[in-house]
Amino acid sequence: MGALEAVILTIITASTPLLLAAIGELVTERSGVLNLGVEGMMIMGAVCGFATAYTSGSAMLGVAAGLLAGVVMSMLFAFLTQTLMTSQVATGLSLTLLGLGLSGLIGEAFTGLPGVKLTVLDIPFLSDIPFIGPILFGHDILVYASLAIPLGVAYVLFRTRLGLIITAVGGNHHSAHALGYNVIRVRYGCIAFGGACSGLAGAYLSLAYTPQWIENMSSGRGWIALALVVFSTWLPKRLMIGAYLFGTVWIMGLYVQALGVAIPAQLLSSLPYLVTIVALIIISGNKTLTKVNTPACIGQPFAPER
Asked: CA-CA distance, 268 to 255, in Å (whole number)?
């Protein structure tokens, strides 16, 4: 039971950054914007979160700094793509490259330093329940946020007027504009939300998952988060399942290595990315499912004056 508990806890921690980053990108894409800069926003959230926590001694300030870093990066993307009408694909890729380079520059002074770990929320009596207590009630605030945010997003998208507006903007921005909705403003808000979630995912990496700064510590998680959005066919609840599935694959590769199984370590390390490719191939085969949920205007620029 102790070994099973450890495996489950490790899967939860591995899935949390994927879930946080992916749910933010889901909202962004629901509004019709494709932001390929998730990896860059995550790594900036990680370095800014760690640097702030180390200098201030407060992990919560680090979380706030990671969130803010993600928002700032996303606003740069929003300004370029929504105001200046640059290519969303090229700008997103540039944002990732900028984040990777800038984080290496900022984090150079913090490499090898001890981190400030995000504290676990200890719930009296509940946290002490054998097996169930640590799994359900033995986590930090970002783990619980990664569960609450997708549920909140699902409610907003499918139960509120704001969700209908976001869906309308992503489905047909010209019709939404004709109805009087400010398409650019809605997309700015959704992009900022996506950046905030990516920043939180990065902060989780450097303050909870591995409480230290390591260059490129996002290790491609931003790209997996992008794939998760497609895997979930833009549905928040399915996204939660996918995130934990991919987190399980990520951790199982590490456990197989620890058991000494005669499989090349390079193959096990590439397993999450291989699963990502296979999952995308399977999903792309279901044309009906993807067509129903895919935002029709995704990646398309909108200029109301033209």
From this structure: 10
pTM value > 0.85: yes
Q: How far is CA 161 from the centre of its chain?
A: 25
Q: In which band, very low, low, confident or very high, does the pLDDT at 13 lie, cut at 50, 70 and 90?
A: very high
Q: Which residues contact 278 (CB under 8 A, 6 or more apart)?
A: none
Average pLDDT, the chain: 90
Using alpha carbons only, what angle is made at residue 24 by residues 219 and 28, rounded to the nearest 5 degrees?
Answer: 115
Do 20 and 189 form a contact (C-beta atoms < 8 A)?
no
Taking CB atoms within 8 Å and a gap of at least 24, the contacts of 49-54 are 49/199, 49/202, 49/203, 49/206, 49/207, 50/107, 50/110, 50/115, 50/206, 50/207, 50/212, 50/213, 51/106, 51/107, 51/110, 51/213, 53/115, 53/116, 53/206, 53/207, 54/110, 54/113, 54/115, 54/116
306 confidence band (pLDDT: 50, 70, 90): low
- Do 35 and 299 form a contact (C-beta atoms < 8 A)? no
Q: How many CA atoms, within 13 angstroms, populate the side-chain half-sphere of residue 186?
A: 25
Model confidence over 63-115: pLDDT tens digits? 999 999 999 999 999 999 999 999 999 999 999 999 999 999 999 999 989 98
3-class DSSP string for 195-207: HHHHHHHHHHHHH
What are the sequence ranges of the domains in the chain? 2-219
Mapped to the 3 state alphabet, what secondary structure does 43-98 carry?
Answer: HHHHHHHHHHHHHHCCHHHHHHHHHHHHHHHHHHHHHHHHHCCCCHHHHHHHHHHH
Pick from 284, 207, 250: which is nearest to 47 by CA? 207
Give which of 45, 32, 27, 39 is closest to 81, Cα–Cα: 32
